[in-house]
Amino acid sequence: MTEHDPIFLPGVPEARLRAIFGQAAGNEIASGKFASPQSSSALAANGFGWFIDRPSDCPLFPAISDLRGPVREVAVEREIRLPWRGGRHPWLDAVLWTDAHVIGVESKRHEPFRDAKVAELSDAYDRDVWSEGMEGWCAMRDALRSEPRRYRHLDAAQLVKHALGLASEETRSGHAPVLVYLYAEPQDGGYSPDAFLAHRREVEDFHAAVAGCRVRFAACSWRGWLACFTGEAARHARAIEEAFAP
Q1: How many domains does the chain have?
Q2: pLDDT tens-digit series, residues 223-245
Q3: Exposed / middle / buried, residue 31 (Cβ in 10 Å: 0-12, 13-18, 19+)
Q4: DSSP 3-state assignment of 136?
Q5: Is the pLDDT confidence value at 215 over 60?
Q6: Could you report the per-residue pLDDT of 162-174, keeping only the tens digit for each?
Q7: Which end of the chain is more exposed for a tag (fewer CB within 10 A), N or C?
Q8: pLDDT digits over 13-45, tens only?
Q9: Sign of CA dihedral 216, 183, 115, 208
Q10: Interacting residues of 228 by C-beta distance below 8 A, sequence separation 6+
Q11: What does the buried/exposed string (b/e) look like for 60-99 if buried means 16 or more CB atoms within 10 Å of the residue's CB?
Q12: Inter-CA distances, 229 with 48, 51, 134, 185, 222, Å
């Protein structure tokens, strides 16, 4: 393995993940992005990929620990279709299924602490297809259009798109939808504690704006989730911390 090869930790099904990313949007592995020392997709793929063949070992996130488990299926780099043909559809870093819930995960590593975010949402998201209980998400959609720089660190427009995709997934599957924002506070980027604090405050503001909606929103740090790993998974958590310093 050279310094430019993707990192796959022990126990992670490398061949399956290569096949998944080969068919996904973004071309992460073939483009070389996956092998970057600061790759967000490599962190997510290794974190969730380990559970593909042992989903019941996958712990739920602390912010949604009230949901009934166990996890029945784990997918990495999964497209969630919107209720129309054509166009671009959201891709989530991971999707977990329990008997009652579909949990979409958007994972971030260095992205929140780089360039300031400017929200963009096309007119396609104005279609009246979201059913009841999505008013808060639609209000956030409209707020971001009128104030595209509302958040500096949080990619709020992406989260709105993911939530609308998960609302559509509920219609198809009957599983109650949850969107989890899983973020790192990387120690290898030279970021200030003030940046981490500002990001957390934006997450809290966003959470308050969409609370009570049909697509439940929750946020968790990578450190907080890894602390929930037990048994053999705890060793994998330590390997993730050593390789990716989330």
Answers
A1: 1
A2: 999 999 999 999 999 999 999 88
A3: exposed
A4: helix
A5: yes
A6: 999 999 999 888 9
A7: N
A8: 999 999 998 887 767 776 677 777 788 999 999
A9: positive
A10: 59, 60, 61, 62
A11: bbebeeebebebeebbbbbbbebeeeeeeebbbbbbbbbe
A12: 12, 11, 33, 19, 11
In a domain, 228, yes or no: yes
- Whether residue 9 is contained in a domain is answered as no
pTM > 0.85: yes or no: yes
Cα–Cα dist 43/39, whole Å: 7
The answer for residues whose C-beta is within 8 angstroms of residue 115's C-beta and 6 or more apart is none
Per-residue pLDDT at 129: 81
- Residue 67 maps to a domain: yes
State which residues form the domain around 169.
14-244
Q: Between 40-49 and 232-244, two packed helices, what is the crossing angle to 10 degrees?
A: 170
Question: What average pLDDT does range 141-153 have in this prediction?
Answer: 97
In a domain, 8, yes or no: no
Residue 30: exposure state from Cβ atoms within 10 A (0-12, 13-18, ≥19): exposed
Of 5 and 242, more confident: 242
Query: Residues near 169 by Cβ (< 8 Å), separated by ≥ 6?
Result: 80, 81, 102, 104, 175, 177
Q: Which amino acid is at 83?
A: P
Please identify which residue in the block is written with the tokens 């604090």. 197
Measured between alpha carbons, how far is residue 129 from residues 1, 29, 168 in Å? Answer: 48, 35, 9
| Mean of the per-residue pLDDT values of the chain | 91
